[in-house]
Amino acid sequence: MLTAKQYSQIRDELDSCKDPLFFFHDDPDGLCSYLLLYRYKGEGKGVIVKTNPRIDETWLRRVEEYYPDKLFILDIAMVDQDFIDNCKVPIVWIDHHGPYQRDRIRYFNPRSNDAASSPPVSYICYKVVEEDIWISMAGCISDMYLPDFADEFRNKYPGMLPEGVTAREAQFNSKIGRLARILSFMLKGTTSDAMKFARLMHKIKSPSEIMDKETITGDKIMRRFEQVEKEYQELLKEAKSRATEDSVLLYIYPNSRNSFTGDLANELVYNFPEKIIVIGRENGGEFKLSLRSDRHNLPALIETSLTGLQGYGGGHEHAAGAVVKSDDFPKFLENLRKHAL
Fold it and tell me: Is the pLDDT of residue 257 over 70?
């Protein structure tokens, strides 16, 4: 965990700027982190990072375009030193991957204090602003994390989070888990579409405004979710049918407009906890994959399985991603099965 002093330092960074820019990851944790800080500050601009979760020199153009007085980078696994060195505004990087050593940056990562501690960034941001608990809870549950303010949330929003459930059970069998999925599916499609829906969240006052379609804005968000949900359920049904006696459940689906690799992987490991889940799409001569496993340290397993092959990967212990060249993909799967024994 971060310390009380570190939470205070992040709050001071927010309070001391007038026109911040927020780079955030394109998943519910990243979105909720952005919303928590933006809604607290009431000023600034958000930019969703829908490509690789890495900020390199190509992102300098976006900073120059907006000319902020401070940049906040939220839930992004990697920030290159070259970007930092050439960025002309102060940078605050809040993350729960790594940690990494960087210069000339304010870096807040709970894993720097304790390698075993990895709360979502939406948890950290809630501890900073201490408002909009429902937004933070959605981000936490999407990352399969049950925060220490769960009881406070239950009292404020009865019926959203049942007593006694685990984070994974809540993700698929609770109203707050459904809200997390709504936010995830809201971000599908083009970058401009995703940001349009992210901005709709600026003024939403409660979960029911969305889930019960109490306002025009909430209705727009739900209609978008219902549209994307139909596509997802078709893919999920097909993916479940691929389960065999094999220790790996592999599902490669068409390179359609929407990417569901992470969403599918999360639900499949919930349904098949004994298996290694590998979900992906092929594009441009490489496979982009999401992997899940309750029993294996995935970053280590991916690294070993990629030995001698063209590809890269990483992430959390039980939830990770990888990119593997198409020619090497069969060998990667062979290695994965062998090293997982």
Answer: no
